[in-house]
Specification:
- One of its GO terms (molecular function) is acyltransferase activity.
- InterPro entries: Plipid/glycerol_acylTrfase.
- It holds the Pfam family Acyltransferase.
- Keywords: Acyltransferase, Transferase.
- This protein is of the alpha/beta class.
- The chain has a single domain, classed as Glycerol-3-phosphate (1)-acyltransferase (3-Layer(aba) Sandwich).
- About 40% of the residues lie in helices and about 20% in strands.
- The chain has 8 helices and 7 strands, in the order αββαβααβαβαββαα.
- The protein has a 7-stranded mixed sheet with strand order 1-7-6-2-5-3-4, with helices on both faces.
- Helix 5 packs across helix 6 and helix 6 crosses helix 8.
- The protein starts with a helix and ends with a helix.
């Protein structure tokens, strides 16, 4: 499969050029729908995040990646399972696609900060991940990617995988803005706790 062939190749390169340590791999569910929610440190994050998973992660990716880099790059993104989302807008189509992936028992990867945050400021997500969790009734797996400073070759990168947050714990009412924001705050708190552990 194209996705796993690419993942094995780039994971090999990543192990050669980055000191990656994974903690909490045992928290990854073996089956069932799941939203993988992570802070965004670098363009390498989708690779760092996908490596310990035995199932394909379908990523929401900013639409500019599909529009600004040519047909070949767009083809690669689609065949890797990514799909576009328009940032800073209520992109109903991308939300429907995300919910459909989850309803079919798939894994959805979201970096809800919306862009790379290169320093170690606290994780402040937008509400999209919580909204999708509320619509799909899917658990959320919090993940943190930590590096002391900007991620560069041969620097240590720590990827922490937390325990899934159940729909019951999030208690999201998709029709309530306050409920969605509260759930986003719960997700942020879990990820920030892992980031504070550092190495």
């Amino acid at each position: 499969m194209f996705y796993f062939s690419c993942l094995r190749f780039f994971s090999f390169l990543a192990r050669r050029f980055f000191q990656i340590e994974y903690k909490g791999i045992e928290n990854i569910p073996g089956e069932g729908k799941l939203i993988v929610c992570c802070n965004h440190k670098s363009v390498m994050d989708p690779l760092f995040l996908a490596a310990p998973f035995k199932r394909q992660i379908r990523y929401m990716a900013k639409s500019e990646l599909f529009e600004d880099h040519g047909a070949v790059f767009r083809w690669i993104l689609y065949h890797l399972g990514a799909f576009p989302v328009k940032r800073n807008s209520g992109d109903a189509q991308s939300i429907r696609t995300a919910v459909q992936i989850l309803d079919e028992g798939g894994l959805l990867g979201i970096f809800p900060q919306g862009k790379c945050v290169f320093d170690n400021t606290p994780f402040k997500p937008k509400a999209g991940a919580a909204m999708i969790a509320g619509l799909s009734k899917a658990p959320v797996l919090p993940v943190s990617i930590y590096c002391d400073g900007v991620i560069k070759p041969f620097k240590r990168v720590t990827v922490r995988i937390g325990k899934p947050i159940s729909p019951e714990e999030l208690q999201i009412n998709p029709k309530s803005t306050a409920s969605v924001r509260a759930a986003a705050g719960v997700i942020a708190e879990k990820i920030n706790q892992m980031l504070e552990e550092k190495n």
